[in-house]
Amino acid sequence: xxxxxxxxxxxxxxxxxxxxxxxxxxxxxxxxxxxxxxxxxxxxxxxxxxxxxxxxxxxxxxxxxxxxxxxxxxxxxxxxxxxxxxxxxxxxxxxxxxxxxxxxxxxxxxxx
Length: 112
Description:
mainly beta; 7-stranded mixed β-sheet; 11 strands
C-alpha cells in the first residue's frame, strides 16, 4: 500500500520559516521525480517545486525561488521543503506528489 504522509505545517508569522516533510512508503521512492504542490483557498493546485530522483536537479515556481528549497533523503524515503521568508500569499495546503501518488496535505498559514 502506497502512502505519502506530510508533516511540518502550521501557523507562522510573515518572514518566518517552516520545514515540511513527506514520508513515503510502499513504492520505489528513489525511482521518481518528487514534487510539492500547494492549493490556496479558492484557487487551483499549483506546482511549487520539483526534484529529480537523486536530487541532482531542482525546479521552482518563480514566486518561491530563493526562498524555498526542495530536498530528499532517499535512504529515509523522505522529501523535504524548507520554506524561508514566508509571505501571507504562501498560505495554502501543501501536498507532496510522486507519480500518481499524493499525500493528504499539510496546512501552512502565514499570518501576523
